[in-house]
Write a structure and sequence with these properties.
The protein has 510 residues and is of the alpha+beta class. The chain has 15 helices and 18 strands.
């Protein structure tokens, strides 16, 4: 080719190309987890200067009907509400605001609900409301105007709890992961699991705000027919650096990473004490997930763990945590994801870490070695060296997977062991697929082992844990010897007998 390369692309004018209405579908398909989506709404409350936020699950007997987030913030005028409900609506964010992109309210809400209604009132203006109905939004960005009388009645419903003179109510209807049928205690179990996870999420990611005397989050459940309040409790802060005693006597220490693009960035390096059972330590994923960098933006945690290409996660570094407050205008090095649950860093950051040092000239890499030594010393003092295992995977409850990874070294680079229910010969309680690393449990005995409860992907955690402890070594060997084969047959016989006894007991109860 002989044409000279053009470093700038020549243009011949411009053309307006507005987004297709189906963009709303794309906006609602960004993979927001339920807890992450609710946290995004609470961010808006914080930006509005709220002191009290209530997350309200509404049920009609056994059926969950709506989720609301209510705050006593400054509220919005009608014009401000229109901007807030506009996709990518332009507004001037405060220098310390948690919002950034103008999409969080819409994308978080429509990821989990078929409609989102926002009703708001300032001290000087009347209550106004807007509603995005997904089916109408995708046909042409048609946003409903909420009837003024209803807008005021919704504000009045939450008078003094927490709205006084001003505030905002966000209402989700048609929530996608609410149980379709709440009978048999299904709704109660859903609420228990979901509220527990939500409390941990909010307590962790907003712990600096919750530690203040003037900010509270309450989660409540109410029956809309009877007015009965089933639950009402405050979310407690979960400080990921809130250990009762230090894991290493020379830490925490502050290192400085010199970044040409943004200047010096302080790194507050901590070592947790070994074998902690506190929620502050265990609330974040597995031992591999919870180590590394905890990035904050305007006091809001936006990434909990991860080494951001500085190094690979390692079980021996499970006690290492580093707090980093992101500097202002640092997008060239630190790019926050839209969902505010991760930070992408440029190679400049990883390079700076290898040279980062504290006031005494100690290198950041020495901190990593110190955190590893605390973990290894704790293992040595326990007096036993546990053999590395293949981790449990799909079908095991997350708490079980976490416990295994806490207690046992995990073989790196190995696919985990899955467990599932399936029809097999009734003379067997389990089957093993060594090649695909699957333990199959006999579907015939499932209802008896669950005591008549409804099953799910991670059901029967006790039975599955015992099966993992019995069988994980089978997957860690290339073949089974005669003694191992005899043990497998022994376990089959005894477990089948026990399962059949469970079936008989269930028949007697009927």
């Amino acid at each position: 080719m002989t044409d000279r390369w053009q470093f700038d692309v020549p243009t011949a004018g411009t053309k307006l190309l507005p987004p297709d209405a189906r963009y709303m579908e794309a906006l609602s398909s960004q993979g927001y987890g339920f807890e992450v989506a609710v946290a995004d709404l609470v961010d808006n409350s914080i930006d509005a200067g709220a002191h009290d936020v209530v997350i309200h699950f509404l049920r009609d007997e056994d059926r969950l009907v709506s989720l609301l987030v209510i705050d006593d913030g400054k509220g919005m005028t009608e014009d401000e509400l229109d901007v807030a409900m506009t996709v990518g609506g332009r507004r001037d964010y405060d220098a310390k605001a948690l919002g950034m992109f103008g999409t969080g309210l819409k994308s978080a809400s429509l990821s989990h609900a078929s409609s989102v209604t926002v009703v708001t009132k300032t001290r000087r203006t009347r209550a106004v409301g807007r509603r995005w109905l997904m089916e109408r939004a995708v046909s042409g960005y048609q946003c409903d105007i909420v009837a003024p009388d209803y807008a005021q009645s919704l504000i009045d419903r939450y008078a003094e709890r927490p709205i006084v003179w001003q505030g905002t109510v966000i209402r989700w209807d048609g929530v996608k992961n609410f149980p379709a049928h709440g009978g048999g205690g299904q709704t109660d179990r859903y609420l228990h699991r979901t509220i527990n996870r939500l409390g941990l999420q909010l307590g962790l990611y907003l712990h600096r705000f919750l530690a203040r005397d003037d900010f509270n989050i309450t989660i409540a459940v109410e029956d809309v027919t009877t007015g009965t309040e089933y639950m009402n409790f405050g979310v407690e802060p979960l400080d990921p650096f809130g250990y009762p005693k230090v894991g290493h006597p020379e830490y925490p220490r502050t290192f400085t990473a010199a970044l040409p693009s943004v200047g010096d960035v302080p790194l507050s390096a901590h070592v947790w004490p070994a074998k902690s059972t506190l929620d502050e330590y265990k609330a974040v994923g597995s031992v591999l997930d919870r180590q590394g960098f905890y990035f904050y933006r305007h006091d809001r945690l936006v990434q909990a763990g991860g080494w951001n290409n500085f190094r690979q996660p390692d079980q021996h570094l499970s006690l290492a945590r580093v707090a980093v407050d992101l500097p202002e205008k640092s997008d060239e090095v630190f790019r926050l994801t839209v969902k505010k649950e991760g930070v992408e860093t440029s190679p400049e950051f990883a390079d700076a870490l290898s040279k980062a040092s504290d006031a005494d000239g100690r290198l950041f890499t020495e901190y990593v070695a110190a955190a590893e030594s605390v973990y290894r010393e704790a293992r040595r003092r326990s007096g036993t060296t546990r053999r590395a295992v293949i981790a449990p995977g799909k079908g095991f409850d997350p708490f079980v997977r976490e416990a295994v990874e806490d207690e046992l070294p995990v073989l790196p680079g190995e696919d985990p062991i899955a467990i599932r229910w399936q029809k097999i010969d009734n003379g067997n309680f389990f089957d093993i697929d060594r090649e695909n690393r699957v333990i199959t449990l006999n579907q015939h005995y499932r209802s008896a082992l669950l005591g008549g409860r409804r099953g799910g992907l991670n059901d029967a955690p006790t039975v599955k844990s015992l099966m993992y402890l019995l069988l994980h070594q089978v997957f860690e060997k290339e073949y089974s010897g005669s003694r191992e084969k005899d043990n497998l047959q022994l376990w089959q016989s005894i477990l089948v007998a026990a399962a059949r006894a469970e079936l008989e007991r269930m028949a007697d109860d009927d």
